[in-house]
Amino acid sequence: MGIDPGTNLMGYGIIHVRDKEVVMEAMGVIDLRKVADVYLKLGRIYERVLGLIDSFHPDELAVEAPFFGKNVQSMLKLGRAQGVAIGAAINRQVPIHEYAPLKIKMAITGNGGASKEQVAEILRRMLKIRETKNVPYLDATDALAAAYCHYLETSREIKSSSGRSSWKKFAQCHQLLEDGASTTPQKKLLNALKGGSKRGK
After folding, report:
1. Fewer beta carbons within 10 angstroms: which end of the chain, N or C?
2. Catalytic residue among 25, 60, 131, 139
3. What is the CA radius of gyration of the chain?
4. What domains are defined for the chain?
5. Minimal CA–CA distance to 167: which of 158, 175, 155?
């Protein structure tokens, strides 16, 4: 299970590995925009995350770390939201793992400077998510990316071979590579997406 902390919109994404195939179980957002009191927001986050854990019984929780480029007040708010979500996982004895945004983007796209839209599109293709299932908030796909990043980090299949060859094999299985598109498998993923968008114009 992945969590993208936020005090107005908190994203969540849940994946399940079945016979080495990764499928999306659920994704969405916890919408807190109508809750004015900050402490009520934190209470709502705790309750909702507990509810998600009780519904899906995740083995582990991957949380996106707050971005240090934000101002102090934003960092404090995100830190509180993250802490409450972590507290809910601790309550249910779910192991917790934290990943920086750069790490997550690198794991999904091979580019730490990738946009949220690029991350979302690559996840959609990798996990074969129908566009109609996509929610209108990138917070949800960011959370899904955190969960998938953790899967890649802990996957025995990825670790058993070199990062370059495993990425190439993985991308080919998902039909995301184009011959001679670039020099690295991760960049080929992005070039495949760019090529697809050009053909759609």
Report:
1. C
2. 139
3. 17
4. 2-154 (3.30.420.10), 161-201 (no CATH)
5. 158
pLDDT by 10-residue block (mean), the chain, 201 residues: 94 90 92 94 96 96 80 84 95 95 93 91 89 75 95 69 47 44 48 53 46
Query: Of the residues 59, 60, 64, 98, which is catalytic?
Result: 64
Amino acid (one-letter) located at 70: K
Is the distance from CB of 4 to CB of 11 less than 8 angstroms?
A: yes
Are 81 and 66 a contacting pair, CB within 8 Å? no
Strand, helix or coil at 27? strand
Tally DSSP H helices, then E strands, for the chain. 8, 5
Residue 156: CB partners within 8 Å, gap ≥ 6?
Answer: none
- Does the active-site annotation cover 4? yes
Looking at residue 33, the DSSP 8-state letter turns out to be T
Q: Are the beta carbons of 192 and 198 closer than 8 angstroms?
A: no
Residue 117 annotated to the active site: no
pTM for the model stands at 0.75
